[in-house]
Each structure stands twice: as structure tokens, then as C-alpha cells.
Amino acid sequence: AVLLNVVGSVGGAMMSGEAPPASGPGCVHCGEAFGSKNLLFKHLRASGCTDAAAKNGLKVDQSEPLERVALIVGCIPGDDAAASGGGWRAALWRGIDAARGCADGADVGAAGACTGPTGPTGGDGGGGSGGGGSAPSAPLHRPPRESYAARGGAPGAVFASEATKEVARLAPDVPRACEVLGLLTEVVPEAERAAWCARANAALPPTVRILGRSEGLANSFQADACCLRRCYDCLVPSALLLGDEIAAAASAAPAGLLDGSDEEDESMVQAAPVAASGHVKRGAGDPRWGPGASRTAILEQYARLKAVMRRLEGEHRLHNFAPAARLSPHEGASRRWVYRFRAGDGVPKEEPHGVSSPVRALSAAVDALLVGQLQSMVGVAVALARGCLPDGFLDYALSEQGLTRVPAVPEGTVFLDRCIFTKQFHYFLQPLMESPDALAWRAHLQDLLVARARSGVFETWFNEELLPSAHLLTEAAAAFSRGARPSPQAMPAEGSIARAGAGASASEKDEEEVEKVERVAKVCAEVLRLLRAADEGGRWPGISKGREKGIKSDTLRGNGG
Predict the structure, then answer these.
(1) What is the rounded distance in angstroms from the CA atom of residue 74 to the CA atom of residue 207?
(2) Is the pLDDT confidence value at 342 over 70?
(3) Does residue 157 contact residue 113 with C-beta atoms inside 8 Å?
């Protein structure tokens, strides 16, 4: 019917003596000419003529076009009270609904639908060959938009920190500096993306921010599957890494040298009392570390820490480093890749050098982080670098035969820094993760974690939890190195380190472990006695009918076999 109307309009124009369209068919409703029928029908489906064409029988898809995008999200999950119920994710969906026009005054129905901006985002998309301007686009009568908060999330929504395996997903209470959320949502022009994010942030609590929205990505983009590396930081006081005396000497050294890199601040180079040579011999140390024994102590302690962190790089079985996951050594999820584990610069970097309690970031780039993995990695690195545990303990903790509990630094000191994607998508996402808004949010998050690192939680953990439990871990590692199975007394049980942190002495903890082993031994001895009595008294159950078909009766013990 539409095509007949178009042909009829052209024929009527010719019969009346009017000039036909310059080329191709024209719209019977507005008279605009198009170069092909494809352009004509594109115009009829997305313009002010759509309603009239639909009445004439044209099938029109009135649903809004969707695109797959990535949102850069920052959040502090610990403060869910500000999220007005449901946690930070529920607050995020409500904020996105506000940006889409589905909240704060929108008509939200009982089924979770809401009305938002309707109509096409651009023109009719078909450049007319006749030179005339397109008719103004009238709003389409599209169905109301569905509320993401009501349905529990956006279509195809997935976070980059959520690895494919459930046990490898990020703990829900870990803060995020640049989390990446991939979802399928309505198309937003480039000029309106900043306003879209601003509307969402206006409805979000201060602990949840949308730091950027990407352009439309390919349908193959999946935030979890396309993420190659996930980068995390753990903020630790320098005194914990090097010791109080060595850290005090290190505070006089220029910033930027503790990370083992070759990049130094030019202002520090100019202010150095000793000029830096063009090349520093391995083991000699840069002269700007200070003279004599101070420089030697700093370099020795840092070299020990660096060696431990390098040993944790690569592919390992980290079943002992994630107690919450309860993994066995042979499960595939326990094999994790640690691409990089380094001690970075001071946090914040602009902090004046020589402060009383500098804080450094221990950064790890991994394929996926088990719950508690980085805290355990940092705890082991600190324990080995400070000499609390022997060097062989790391081999014991990473072995398939080793089942132990490794020391882990306190919670609330780790955050997700950023994600690295395949080159196809990282090209679009990296500018968003380095935007001014993202950098400001990362600095705000670091300030919160620096304040916690300086609150004394690390000193309490070191003195009241790590040191009292070190002798048990040392005995277990020594037994493993001798090829013997560690005794139960040398195996710190679940919660034993926590009891040590509560103030229990080493002797009291040993007595508790011995009592626990004795109780288990009594139960096992009683069960063994009952089994032997049943066997000797002829009360042992006979063989089943099914097993008789595969086992000869004369081989059974009851028949003299």
C-alpha cells in the first residue's frame, strides 16, 4: 500500500504537469525524494511520517535502538548505608535509570516499566537527492522503557571484576577505582554522554560514581571475557615492609627509587647531595640512598622484599592464599596467573618526602583475583622480608602437598585500580580510565585507604597476629622440607591466627591445639574399636547381590578368602 501510494503520487504529479522527483521514489506524506527505496523506507520508519505510514500498513519497529557500551564505575562498597538499601549495585541501577529518564518523576508502572525520551536520536538518516530538507522528526509512540532497578540489572550487564569462575570473583566489599561495566542500553549521541553521566551521578550516593561512558562497542565485547588483566593495589606502611629503623632511614631517600625502576624525579636529582652516576653497578645501590650503613640496610631489606615478590609472579596454585574459597590444590580455579607484583611509589605521590609514616602501594596484575588472595600475598611477602618466616615457607605454601594457612594483612587495604582489555577495546576504554574524573576518584579512594593504613591496624596485625603464629608456620614448613607430614600441632587451624590476634599467647594457643587433636583422636579411636568388634563378632555386612556378579564368593574373608 505504501509503495502504491508512492507510485500514485509520482503518477499524479506527471498527470498534473508537475515535475517528477529528481531521482528515485518520493514520500507521499512529505513529498521528499530519495535515491532508492531503501532510503525511502528508512525515512518512513524513523521520521515524522512514521505514524501515517504505519496506518497505511507499513510494519514499523517502534522499539528504541540499543548499543553495547562500557561504563567506568567507581564505588566504595563498605558504605552501603548511603546506597539507600540494596547495596551499591542496586543504587547503580537506580542512577542509570535516572540518566535514562526512568526515575525521579518518570512514570514507573507496576511492572517496572518507565517512560523516557522517545523518538529517534537523529534525523531520518537518508540524505534526500532532491536537496530539500527533511521534515521535522515527530516523537514515536514507543513502548515505555523497562526499569533496570526493577528487573535487577541491565540487559547483558557484567562487570570486568567478575571472572568466569565464581570463586575467582572479586570480594563484594573491595573498593573499585575504575570498574568496567558492560551492558546493552539505549543509544546516546556523543555530545550527550557527559550529560547522561551527570544525570546518573546526581541520583547516585557519594560512594558510587559513573566516571565515563564509552561509544558504541562491537557486540563481541564482554567485560569479563575480554578483560586480560585486573590490577589491584594494597596500601601498606613502609615501616611494615622495611622495619621501623630502616624505614626511618628510607624516608630520607628520594621518592621513586623503592619501586626498582629507573625513573626518578628531576627535582630529587638536583637536590641530591651526591651526584648520580650514569650507571650503577648491580648491588652497589644508587648514591642518593644515603651514605654508609643506612644505604646498605635499605638496599638489603628492599632486595629481600623484591625477591619474595618476584617468586610470587607466574602461574601458581594459590589454594592456601584464598581460605574463603576453600579450594583444593587440584582444582582448576586454584591455578592463577600473577603477571606482575611490585612495590610502587609512595601514596599519594605528591606527598612531601620525609613524612613520619609513608605509605606504599604493592601492586599486582592478575588474571583473576581469588577472595583474599592479594592480602595473603602481601602478608607472606612481609613475613618473609622481615624474617618472621623462613624462605622455605613459600615453597610449602605453593606446593600441591602443602595445606596451611598463610598470614594475611587486615581487610580494607585493597582496591581494584583498573582493568586491561584486548587491544580492540582497550583503545576506547583507556582514555576513560585516565580522565580527570577517574583520576580524582582514584586519589579520593587512595586517601581513604592511606588513612586506614596509618591508623595502626598493620602494627596491631604484625605484633598480635603474625608474630605469635610464626612459630607454628615455621614448624610446618620445616617438616615439609624434611619430607615429613607436618604434625597437627604445627598446623595452625582455622581461626588460630585470629585467636592470637585477640591476645592469646603462644603457649595458650598450643594447649588449645593439643586439646583439639586429642578430642579428635578419641572419636577416631572409638569408631575404630566398634568396627573391629563388628568384624570379629561376625556382624560385618555381607556382600550385596549386585557385587556377587563381579566378585567370587570364595575370595571373601568370611569364606576363607
Answers:
(1) 8
(2) yes
(3) no
